[in-house]
Every structure is written in C-alpha cells, then in structure tokens.
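Let us work through a complete example step by step.
Step 1: write down the sequence.
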Amino acid sequence: MYSVNELRNQKGKAITLAQAILDKAETENRSMSAEEKATWTKAYNDVDQIQERIDTIEKTLGLEARSTRVSNEVMKAEINEPQEKRNILDRPEYRSAFDKHLRMKRDLLNDQERRAIDEGTGTSGHAMVYQEFNKFVVEKRVLANPLETLCETIQTFGNYNVPVETDYGMAQWVGEGQPIPDADNSSSSPAYVNDPVVIQRTAGAYALKKIIRVSKEVAFDSLVDLPAYIGKNLGKCFGQAEFSAMIIGTGGAGMPTTQTSPKGLVSQVPVGNTLTTAGALPTPDEVVKFSEVMPAQYNNGSIVILPQANRAIARTLKDGNGRYLWNDLGVGNPSTLNNCPVWICNYMPTSAGNVFALHFTPSCGTIYRRGAFEIQPLFEKYADTGEIGYRGWSRLDFMVTDTNGLTALVLKS
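Step 2: predict the structure and record it as tokens.
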C-alpha cells in the first residue's frame, strides 16, 4: 500500500508529463499527435485515479484533512513575534517548498513542505521570502536607493507610533539640590524655553508592487537560480520606486497620481528651512548660504541631493578666490559640494519654483518596513505567451523624525 506522500509524488509526475506534452504542442503551434493524445489522456486519467485513492486513504486514516489543518492552526496561533516568523522562513523545508512554489510544482510538496509554506504566508496572503532570497532583493535595492543604507531601517509587524521632534532642546547646568528648570513653569528663566517639541505620528504601510515575467523554459530549468533572478530584478525595480518616493513622494496621491506613496524629503522640508534664489539660477554665495541654513550640529554626516541637470550647474560655481565649490574625489567616492557628499536623484523636477538641491542628514530619517517582502507566482495570467508572472509586494513608510536636519535651496518662480 502506497503512502499519501508516495501517491502525491506519482500524481505530480503525471501532471508534469501531461503539461510537458501540452506545452510541446503549443510551442510548435500544432495539435497533439495520436500518440501524444493517448499519453496525455492516460496521464490525465492517472491523476484522477491517484487523487481518488488519496481521498480514500485520508478519509479512512485521517492523515491529512484533520492533522494538517490542526497543526497549521496551532502553529499560526503561536506565531505572534516577528522572530518566530523569521525562524520559519529559515527552515530548510520552507526554502525547498518556496523553490517548488516558484517553479509551478506546488502539487509536489510533501506534508512537511506544505505546512511550511502555509506557515510562511504573509499579511497579504502570499508567501514571504526566506533570508537568502531577501538578500538578492536588498542587494539590488540598495544600489538603486542610497537612502536604504544611509537612514535607519525599522522592521515592524503592526502599527508603529513615531515621536517626531522639531527641537531637541538643550541640557542646563543646575546647582546642587536645585530643581531642573521647566519651560512650562512660569517661574523659570526665559533662558530655558528651548525644551524639546515632540509630536507623534503613526508609520504608514504604503503598498509597493511589481510584476515581472519569466519564460516557462527558464522557470522550469533546474540549472537556473530562479530565486536569484527574480530577487535581483524585483530589488532593482523596488529600489528605484522607493528612492523616487523618498525624495518627491507626496504622502497621498502622486506616485503615479492614482497611487499613494510615503511623503518624500521635498514635502517634509519645514517652511523656515528653505532658501529661495534671487534669480533663475543659484549664485555661489546662495549655495554657500544654503549649506549654512542647517544648524551646525546636524552637518556631521549630512549629504546634498540634486538631479543630474542641476549637477552640471553646480559644477561651474566658484568662490571669490576662483575655486570650484564642487570637488570630484575619484572613482568609488561621491563628489562633494561645499564638502558635503552629493547623491544624484533624477526624479526631482528641474523647472523654476522647484527644489534645486536638498541638504539632508540621514540620521534624521527613518524607513519603516511593514512585514516581510512577499511574492506571488501568477501561473495562468501569461499562459498565452508561455510565461509565468511573479508579483512582488512590500509595504513601507519614510519619515524625517527631526526636521532640523533637512533644508532646501529653491529656484525662484
């Protein structure tokens, strides 16, 4: 007597055989031959017969219908902490199940792999990627989005309340046995009025999605590292979209206009932290003044962000002694403007009235990633072209938690 696992393996082989015959005929744009039709029909009937035997065994012995469901419910009830969820994603059986899941072989999963893939389902109902796959995504994402490595990233699995400070205040010297001065106390000296100003915001969960298409020949080739191929392509696409949103996102409609996105740096610059040029283009003195708008304690580690069109303008600016404000430090090192590293963002508009450049301290910004990166294979959506679609899905928000570390040079309207 065959076990359920053995029967499932037989069923999977029959499905693979039937699919291969059908794919071959479709690729050659012809009908199946008599011999192929007979083989395909036998494989199709074998699938039905094997499934009937599986159903009979499960009903008789209760091997899977009750056991698997209860096991999944217990396991999912226990997964309350992000670390426990990550432990599931790092199991060998989950990695094996995920690879079969990508290659249209879910029917070949054994009981252990089936439970693992169910337990690794994310909040949107799709399989979450394991650590090695996520590395492929991050590897390309950081190349397209430099803020990924410069700003702090917090992984959340629920609502996250964020304290946003517009002024940290300053510590005060206090005599022995004397109370700490309080700006809210009317008896306190006016010198102590620069206490911290704190507001609270909730990190959002803006959805970012992308579908890439892979030919079935590539997807079914065991020599192709499919997770690496998919992960790197999705990582590049997501990195570009994230960098764009973190610079010019509106926090509402706007990326494109029918979507919602995080609020970018341009939208988070405080009114008092902008310098507007007197003419259509900035002068060297205005660029120097722009770098001095930010309080001195925030300059350490700060960067300048501008589009490539404006870089050409900035490279020509000279100080009173004829020295260029722009410096190229060689291959592998970022150029500098007023001794601040420069990052190029071509998503920024360059017309009058828009931001010419941003001066930003990355330690004042935080990326909030909600849950894990998830992926959903779309086996039928592109069947007519012989391709499989893979939809990537992630949620995040971006906030400037201390607006003192963000200033802008704006072109005259």
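Step 3: interpret the result. DSSP finds 13 helices and 14 strands in the chain.
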